[in-house]
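Sanity check record (used in CI):
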Amino acid sequence: MCNLYSSTTASEAMRQMFAVRPELDQLGNAEPLPAIWPKYPGHVVRLTEDGERELTTLSWGFRTTNKSKKTGKILQPAAWNNARDDKVASSGLWKHSFQHRRCLIPATSFCEAKGRSPATYFWFALKGDEARPPFAFAGMWQLSRFEAPDGPDECATYTMITTTANDLVRPIHPTRMPVILRPDDYDRWLDGSPGDALDLLRPYPADEMRIVQRGEDAKSDPS
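Expected output for Abasic site processing protein:
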């Protein structure tokens, strides 16, 4: 599971990395995002109706109606920020988006916490010549429609897909990690068949990653 990540690559560099034409970049001069939490805005690369890549900003976590079990009162919507790789093709919450609305989630690192009171935050990134080489998570997007305390509402949202933790992540989070895609697989993820996409849902090699920051107060990764 992942509840915190960073995306600090400049928007122009993201355009080049993801082969997005300038007119399809909706980010403008977006500021770096050193700490993205559920329900925060984050950047995604998705296909337009014409099949071209666009860069845009959505809210992290598919939203669903959330009712109090005791009173039945409508609460603030739940945000589903992670989707399990073994559920995306069958679960009612994920299936249609997995089939028709896959996206790339630009990132530079992600965080997992270990322990409580206080927790220690571990930030993971890819190895490379840069301090934080940019990469992309496997994601999905949708226009979430739900009941809110003030009535029916909707929000353009995205979620990231998780898979089995690799040997680097497992000591911190024993079961799950986000799916990181290689650049050669971006086209296949965005526009391939559901079967092709399922084949990409696997742990990223541990020997190609490293821990770049850790600490009790390390709740962002600005580097």
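Residues 5-106+135-208 form a domain with the hypothetical protein yedk fold fold (CATH 3.90.1680.10). If this sentence no longer matches the regenerated tokens, the check is flagged for review.
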